[in-house]
């Protein structure tokens, strides 16, 4: 299958590389309004899109979710609005990933870094994890009448804060700004321990995401299969 039919939306470059494959186009390196605008442009082009999936890592909100926990979202909580995921796509992903958890993912416009803020967000609607792309991708899919799904893997567990330098090191284009991190460490060397711990968590999450993408296989293209079966 040469032509992409599903658009995979991620925040970071490594997430996009993992998501890519036959039939899957990727979009990463945009946030907030820029992501919203870019998605509208991409999905509005004259081509057949079968669905939009948010795929990548996420911050843990529910207690005791270890780094590397895979989540197939049932919906995305966008403030007070619940954006549902396509049930048939969910079923396909959960069939391919029987070890994955199912539940809500919260979408936010700014990083959630403190243990207290994670607990508050979890307490509002019971979301398992949080990221900064799923709510925007879900809204775009709904606006264009497309199925939406989300596949996310926990990086930082709810019980641990995210070091401020980790957020500062996220470049706007989805890469890691090593220079910003090194300069930050010169001013705040006490953050080194937290960064090392987060690095270990990130390695576990990356391994789990890679494995989940491999196992998901054709389940990522479930909307295409459903469209083609409808033709028959």
TrEMBL record:
Annotated ranges, domain Nucleoside phosphorylase: 50-186
Cross-referenced Gene3D superfamilies: Nucleoside phosphorylase domain
Family matches, as CDD domains: adenosylhopane_nucleosidase_HpnG-like
One Pfam match: PNP_UDP_1
SUPFAM superfamilies found in the cross-reference section: Purine and uridine phosphorylases (SSF53167)
Annotated coiled-coil segments of the chain: none
PANTHER family to which the protein is assigned, alphabetical: 5'-METHYLTHIOADENOSINE/S-ADENOSYLHOMOCYSTEINE NUCLEOSIDASE (PTHR46832), 5'-METHYLTHIOADENOSINE_S-ADENOSYLHOMOCYSTEINE NUCLEOSIDASE (PTHR46832:SF1)
Protein name: Nucleoside phosphorylase domain-containing protein
Source organism per UniProt: Cupriavidus pampae
């Amino acid at each position: 299958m040469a032509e992409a039919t599903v658009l995979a939306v991620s925040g970071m470059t490594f997430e996009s590389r993992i998501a890519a494959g036959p039939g899957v186009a990727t979009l990463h390196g945009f946030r907030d309004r820029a992501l919203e605008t870019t998605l509208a442009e991409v999905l509005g082009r004259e081509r057949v899109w079968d669905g939009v999936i948010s795929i990548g890592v996420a911050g843990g909100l529910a207690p005791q979710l270890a780094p590397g926990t895979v989540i197939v979202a049932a919906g995305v909580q966008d403030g007070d609005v619940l954006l549902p995921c396509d049930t048939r796509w969910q079923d396909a992903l959960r069939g391919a990933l029987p070890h994955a958890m199912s539940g809500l993912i919260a979408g936010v416009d700014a990083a959630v870094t403190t243990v207290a803020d994670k607990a508050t967000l979890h307490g509002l609607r019971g979301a398992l994890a949080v990221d900064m792309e799923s709510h925007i991708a879900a809204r775009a899919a709904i606006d264009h009448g497309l199925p939406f799904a989300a596949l996310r893997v926990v990086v930082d567990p709810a019980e641990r804060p995210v070091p401020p330098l980790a957020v500062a090191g996220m470049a706007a284009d989805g890469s890691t700004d090593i220079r910003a991190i090194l300069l930050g460490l010169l001013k705040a060397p006490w953050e080194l321990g937290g960064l090392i711990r987060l690095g270990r968590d990130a390695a576990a999450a990356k391994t789990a995401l890679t494995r989940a993408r491999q196992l998901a296989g054709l389940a990522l293209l479930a909307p295409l299969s459903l469209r083609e079966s409808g033709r028959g």
